[in-house]
Specification:
By secondary structure, the protein is of the alpha+beta class. The chain has helices at 13-24, 28-37, 43-50, 88-100, 126-142, 145-153, 188-206, 254-270, 272-292, 297-308, 348-356, 362-384, 389-404, 409-418, 426-439; strands at residues 64-72, 75-82, 106-109, 114-121, 157-165, 173-181, 220-227, 234-242, 318-323, 326-334. Strand 9 and strand 10 form a beta hairpin.
């Protein structure tokens, strides 16, 4: 067993790289060259990237693509997408073009409430705690005024603070459950700063509350933290058209297609094994835009999947129906996004993406992200209920296979021509390339 390294964080970037290369690689020079090949050639940009996280040794690139032709609430939008999975951007663009001639996407923000909680333990008389909360609540607001000043000037701030008794779940467990409006920022730092001040005020004031016994005054603050589950920060995106207008090259019978499409979603509503994959496809679109615009895709993922299971069973995030000859397809999801603060003002490509989106507000970005998720879901379900998912996906994946095989330009042309009429699989491509090379 090797000894742990001491003081690694204090080493320079060069020293860290040399340590890793010499410790883990048989050819240290090749490892060092690889890492340095991914450094940004602009030293200032590289320094900016180095400062995003700790112990930076290089950059890990993802492709940034665009899906054009989206019509959202009557406005044309080109959506940036940062993702490594083949066919995602193409699928989004195809859906955008399909719906651009059928009325486009409609999107509405239903609410923007965000949540934070102070979790604490109190083992005394709950009636006394309720009296204390009523007494201290105004002070919780007043003691955070310096924190909330700028947010209040922009129209946001603390919306409400509640005392919640959770002792049926855990002995002595209570919460200060607070709601916030953070306007165009995601608001994590703002919310957490408010919560920590709540906790400080709550604990200090308890020491001077006359109705408490000495034991009751000793409230144990466990933690103060925002929640990434935001069931009241909801956006809806939808498309609809007459059933007969769904007709296209691969949809010869639009009524049959619409019914099969609705049935596919019904299956994802009742079968969790299908729902997880169904929603993963939605997240292909959502995560790609969230990442491209400098938002926290892990938080978004956690919150959305919790929302999908809010009634106790994990279900489809999207819905569809046929009513009076109209096909409707929609999604309602929680999205806590920001267009100011964090990486939005630091990362050059995030700034590029937001500029391309014409500098949207947080609400507008919520609409764009929801539309990207819905578009992705439509593309997946259209493939699944017509030609099957693999036809388009494997043709898009063909480039990755050819890159793995170091195919020449001539070989690539022959492969693409061959697989226009044949099923693409990794084994089939390898076999075809090997046969080409053996002939030579």
């Amino acid at each position: 067993m090797q000894n742990a390294v001491s003081g690694f964080s204090k080493l320079s970037k060069e020293e860290k790289i040399n340590w890793i290369a010499n410790r883990y690689f048989s050819t240290p020079s090749a490892a060092i060259t690889l890492l340095k090949n991914y450094w940004n050639t602009d030293a200032n940009v590289q320094k900016l990237h180095d400062d995003f996280i700790e112990n930076t040794i290089t950059n890990f690139y993802l492709p940034l693509g665009v899906a054009p032709n989206f019509i959202i609430n009557g406005k044309e939008v080109t959506i940036p997408m940062a993702i490594e999975e083949s066919s995602v951007v193409a699928a989004a663009a195809k859906s955008a073009k399909f719906w651009s001639t059928r009325g486009g996407f409609k999107a509405t923000v239903l609410n923007t409430e965000k949540i934070g909680q102070v979790h604490f333990i109190y083992t005394g008389d709950s009636k006394k705690l309720e009296q204390f909360f009523a007494h201290v609540k105004p002070q919780l607001f007043s003691n955070t005024e310096t924190i909330t000043k700028n947010m209040r000037q922009r129209g946001g701030g603390i919306l409400n603070i509640e005392l919640r008794n959770q002792t049926d779940k855990l002995p002595g467990y209570f919460q200060l459950h607070a709601t916030f409006d953070t306007q165009d920022s995601m608001g994590a730092n703002f919310i957490n700063s408010c919560l920590e001040q709540f906790a400080k005020t709550f604990k200090q004031e308890a020491l001077h509350f006359d109705s408490f016994s000495e034991a009751e005054k000793n409230i144990e603050i466990v933690m103060s933290i925002l929640s990434n589950y935001v069931p009241n920060c909801i956006v809806r995106a939808e498309v609809s058209c007459k059933v007969e207008e769904l007709a296209e090259k691969k949809i010869e019978n639009p009524q049959e297609f619409a019914e099969k499409f609705v049935r596919a979603i019904q299956i994802a509503q009742v079968e969790p094994f299908r729902a997880v994959t169904h929603n993963k496809g939605i997240m292909n679109g959502i995560d790609a835009v969230v990442l491209a615009t400098g938002n926290d895709f892990r938080a978004i993922e956690a919150g959305i999947h919790a929302y999908a299971a809010r009634d106790g069973q994990y279900r489809s995030l999207s819905s569809a129906k046929i009513e009076n000859g109209i096909f409707s397809f929609w999604i309602e999801i929680p999205l806590a996004l920001g267009t100011v603060g964090g990486l939005t003002s630091l990362h050059p490509l995030v700034k590029f993406s937001l500029t391309m989106l014409e500098n949207p507000s947080a609400k507008e970005l919520m609409q764009i992200v929801a539309v990207a998720g819905l578009a992705q879901n439509f593309a997946a379900l259209r493939s699944l209920t017509t030609t099957g998912i693999q036809e388009g996906h494997m043709k898009m994946h063909l480039n990755n296979i050819l890159n793995q095989l170091d195919a020449t330009t001539h070989e690539r042309d022959l492969v693409r021509d061959h697989f226009k009429e044949n099923v693409v699989s990794h084994a089939a491509v390898v076999s075809f390339i090997e046969n080409l090379r053996n002939v030579r």
